[in-house]
Amino acid sequence: MKHDEALITVVEALAPGLLRYCLGRSGDAALAEDAAQEALAALVQRWRRRGAPRQPEAFAFAIARRRLGRNQARGRRWLPLAAVPEPTGAPSALRQVEHRVALERTLQHLAQLPEHEREALLLIVSGGLSTAAAANVLGVSPSAVKMRVHRARQRLVQRQEKTDG
User: Fold this and answer.
1) Using the 8-state DSSP alphabet, how is residue 87 labeled?
2) Among 114, 19, 5, residue whose Cα is nearest residue 67
């Protein structure tokens, strides 16, 4: 029973970030939900059959990344999101328009990033993964992840300054 309690705790902690990451990668809510559910289901199966993986978050994000990658290969349109906003009440119509314009601008800037930088940024920012877990998912060193995120953020700031200036 204690084994299942730990699993439930891990799944509940991972689910929101995993869903945000999947939505950021796919731009499609239904596809994101499917990929996140499949990744969490794979984690549950692995946990129950062979015990907890060393890094459950890296395991789940790697599964989601592969599932979404397969859909990309099938020609789905991808729109990266820096973060999926969480609902906090009904904003005014003006606020909704402002938010949408800002989101579209952010999507444009993110789409211009090199894929390896965008992927690292999405895992850290939207997915909420640690540097070590993101490195495990991407198959690179933690220092490479840090450099990719740093460069992505620099590029986003530069693009924002050009847009605002």
Assistant:
1) P
2) 19
